[in-house]
């Protein structure tokens, strides 16, 4: 019989468990600092809005590339549960590893008896009025309207790729968010194509830049969610 549990009840000692979760973040795959390990970190949440990181490695990244899509709901069974590794996202005391032994089943929209989870509501964003209080190189989240996107440019001795994006909050405080490397390419290109429609972003784990006053910057483990289905996005649009 299925032993369905919420995230907070699942530990490395839990056996034969299943959890109903919604994928809320799926950053692009990365490589370890030594270049030997390819991995992907995602974040899921349960019906209580508890969150946990799920990690995929190597061939499992491609296996689940089309099976795990943002804001879809899944039944995940018997993933490996462990203490987070140093490169993880510190949102829970444990993290899950999805591998060939893990069972992942999508909950379809037409499942009346066991429907998908409703859109998430839990955000911990910093209002622009308090950005100046954030310490440089500490991570935080924002929700903002994108009003302008610059072109890609290369800066510094190493010709680092970047793109400057102008964002605002409800108090119409324009601030520059610098998107680096693949954020400039992938997310920046999407925002440039949509900028006339003033897309809303939830930028997670960004930081204050260490130069030039109040500037924001992506980091290695940042994620940019474009028009995600949070109710806060709808309120900002209005």
TrEMBL record:
This is Uncharacterized protein LOC104243152 isoform X2. It comes from Nicotiana sylvestris (Wood tobacco).
